[in-house]
Amino acid sequence: MIDSHLPALIALTFVLFAILIPMFGLWKPKSSQPLAVLGSGIASVLSLYAFATYLQTGSIRYFFGGWEPPVGIEFVYDGLSGFFVLVINTVAFFVLIHSRQVARREFPGKEMPYFALAMLALLGFNGMILTGDLFNLYVFLEISSLASYGLIAIGSRPAPYAAFRYLIIGTAGGTLYLLGVGFLYTVTGTLNIIDMAAMLPTFATNTSVVAALVLMVVGIGVKAALFPLHGWLPDSYTFASSSSTALIAPIGTKVAAYILFRIVFYLFGVELTDAVAPITTVIGILAAIGILYGSIMAIAQTEMKRMLAYSSVSQIGYIIMGLSLANPLGFAGALLHVLNHAVMKACLFLVAGNLRMKEGHSDISKFNDSYRKKYPWTMASFSVAAISMVGLPPLAGFFSKWYLALGTIDNENWIFLAVILISSLLNAVYFFRILEKVYMMNPKKDQKEGSDAERNEVGFSMMFPTSVLAIALFVIGFANAAIVGILFNIFPM
Amino acid sequence: MRRQEESPIVLLGSRLLSPYIMLFGLYVIFFGHYSPGGGFQGGTLLAASILLIRLAGGRRVSRLQIQEFATTPLAVFGVIIYFATGLVAMIMGGYFLDYEMLPFTGMEPAMVRYWGILIIEVGIGLAVMAILVMIYDNMVKGEDYA
Amino acid sequence: MLDFFLGHYAYWFVVILMCVGLYGILFKKNLVKKTIGLAIFQVSVVLYFVSIASKWGATVPVKDSNIPVEQVANYLNPLPHTLMLTAIVVGVATLGVAFTLLMAIYNRYGTLDEQELLEKIQ
Fold this sequence. Notes:
heterotrimer; A: 493 residues; two-stranded antiparallel sheet; 22 helices; 2 strands
């Protein structure tokens, strides 16, 4: 019986805990974080079980209120949405375990609103992935965005200003998406994705449909930090608190990339998208520019969180470039990179949180080689994640870049191949700079600074998620053949 | 800025109008089936009736109408009504928010859906009213006028 | 030519409101004025949806006892109105969050002008 209700249950778990956390939090504030971890854990277990069920039986369509589509709203659990739900729920679970001590240090007294907002943000993300109705997607997009603005504003002193800028740009993007949905509704008369995908080929050259596609891509591109629309990202990720960034950064832009996948591959189909205007080519070029821009700007930063924010702009460019290739290898590479980047970025931002907890700052110019004595496990996780970001085998990052490169060769797109290789080198520059400062002794300085430091590692609840995510990179790297096999099955052609 | 003086004329006008606006808000919630209306619109009108007194009289007077701490439990209660209806429908074997499966005995399915929609709209109206009042209260908290 | 302008007058209103809203977001320095520009931008999209729901010679979608329900051409399309109710509520929630953020910015920095804020943050 629970099997047929699974898509709705994953989203409803977050609603239930979003109601429970204020209720118990007003009575006992310390109970907010365990409740949040419990809710996220239940949702991760449900999404794992649902994905295992999907691999055996096939997709599930859940009709809310008993109304059949196209009259009613439905949740569609197929391979693409199941994969994304699994990735974001498990990453969120580990990040919420980590946030216990960070919450006590960085925003004491605001734990109950923070974890309630975290539950609502995860509700919005899960709803966006699972829904099969275009307007319902807008509603969940705004729910997750509003919760994200709140999460970012709970942070350091300039945080409300960064959140306000994100609000203005993000809401304008959502409104443009809504206008695109309006154009599609005017032309086809339905809002259901599966129903509309059957109707659209007859309207291929209608100006409204092309305008709708462009509006939707621009609107969702704001949320996905596509190159010229990424301006909100560095400030927001830097000034938010460590656990907010670790929650939103691996998840938020991926869900917007999911919506782009859904629109380009499932709703319009690749031939229809390029029928009038070369939209996939333009998206690919913007993504390539974004990759190079993000890497170059990341090299110029001195603060670790800001560097990781620009690195996120660069990595989401990989995913969108894989989308623009529109062949099975690019699709598999992009989805594998979604999984890899979510785990890697979460691990890196958790490392930044650990360093901020112990040192009070995460300024790269002040790193010295006493760190490798003081924080051995943290710096080991950082090394694993950094090597994976650069893309060296056998870690996970190598395989996603490998499949993306194979996809570009398949399309004979040599410029994108060059972009992938050059940006891997640039990634190496800014990550190995930190590794050099921490692991290699400066021959001019005193020997005492490094060898005198004592071990001062962070507590277990912060160390456990960081290490688990770093070990997961090895696991994903070794198991990548199985994962890519599943991803090839999801490709819709 | 000069401290705001309370004007007895504005307060009297608001006190006369507020109950009628509240009544009209309830009418809009319950008549959502037959005429334009429903939960969101009625909730906004109810919130307008409460905010009128808060704007006209300040905290001292508005505490007599609805206390400031009472809005959070009201909002949570409204949301709980909404989701409890959906969960009851799900437990009874239908989909989430499938009003046909609600345990009302002896009615034909169309009437059960009618009652289901009504319960949902009441929950939404309550939640919208409490949240709009809560937004205003949080914004003027700590100010020494009003 | 005149027919083109007059026939699509609803769309012209939508476009003008969108341009006014975008002008407010982009060119005004005060943060409150940017928020008002955002609200105008959202209202223009609401106006678009409502305008596509109307038909010539149709009445309000409330069941009239004179007209049988099967002749649906006599009633307006109520679906865009329903969608726009939700969109308006989303807009109100966004404004609520925006004003709370503005109050936090004002309490911390004492100004709501973008130039002064950027100087104070740096």
